[in-house]
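Chapter summary example.
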Amino acid sequence: MKPGIHPTYRPVVYRDRAADFAFLTRSTATSEQTVEWTDGNTYPVIDVQVSAASHPFWTGRQRLLDTAGRVEKFRARYARRGPQRPR
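The structure predicted for these 87 residues follows.
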């Protein structure tokens, strides 16, 4: 690898405030904010809106949509209105 062209790869804390969840990983992302981690060291912190702790797919709290009503509405809107003649 050429020296000086790659971003710094260092430990970073990603924090999901909605779920009160944070995890430490390595990344090239940067941040001006810092947080003290459980090991006593200070790391840059990046706040995210959605993580595995708050995403409905991973938590099992999915919204159920009325798909039957949508299908019927689609069929009613685009139903053929009588026999079609070949063109």
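To summarize the output: The beta strands are 10-16, 21-27, 34-36, 42-48.
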